[in-house]
Write a structure and sequence with these properties.
The protein is α+β, with helices and mostly antiparallel strands. The protein has two helices and eleven strands; from the N terminus they run αβαββββββββββ. The protein folds into two domains: 41 residues; 115 residues, no CATH class. Helices cover 27% and strands 45% of the residues. Strands 1, 2, 3, 6, 7, 8, 9, 10 and 11 form a nine-stranded antiparallel beta sheet that branches. The longest helix is centred in the N-terminal third of the chain and has 39 residues.
């Protein structure tokens, strides 16, 4: 009877060891797939200043955007931050002349717009990670600023001190 009891204990211990090895393998696979930063959070996020530019928007769109408005990228639902500065100028429309050259002109009732946004994200040498998206200079975006649709390109990205 004592031998039978020892045999059951040996099976239980072997089962425990097998389960422990299995769990370690699963943990190793997760770390390999997502890396330490993806599991336990990245090292600190950075403060960002992102300048957005659109060559031509209706003037009423440019006037509806205010400092302090929240900027959201619609495709990834990533919050870029808050508008800190707005600069408008003449719209930039491109047209081809009869000689085949492209020239810039402006349209009445339209404006070009630069919007500076202060936000938080992870600044890397391969772009800026905000939420689940990665953004690069020159990328065209589908954005919402307060209640306004906006389709800019990223003009510049600068790393700044993160506000506390």
């Amino acid at each position: 009877m004592l031998m039978h009891l020892k045999s059951k204990m040996a099976k239980l211990n072997m089962m425990d060891i097998f389960l422990l090895i299995f769990l370690v393998l699963i943990l190793g696979a997760v770390v390999y797939k997502f890396g330490f930063n993806g599991i336990w959070g990245s090292s600190k996020d950075d403060g960002l200043l992102i300048e957005l530019y659109q060559e031509e928007v209706p003037e009423y769109v440019a006037k509806s955007i205010k400092v302090g408005d929240i900027v959201i990228e619609n495709v990834q639902s990533a919050e870029f931050g808050k508008v800190t500065e707005i600069k408008t100028g003449k719209s930039v429309s491109w047209a081809q002349t009869s000689q085949g050259q492209f020239v810039a002109s402006s349209k009445e009732g339209y404006a070009s717009i630069y919007i500076t946004v202060k936000g938080i994200g992870k600044y890397t040498d391969r772009g800026v990670k905000i939420g689940s998206g990665t953004y690069l200079i020159g990328k065209s975006l589908d954005m919402k600023v307060a209640n306004t649709a906006f389709y800019p390109k990223i003009y510049s990205i600068k790393r700044t001190e993160k506000e506390k």
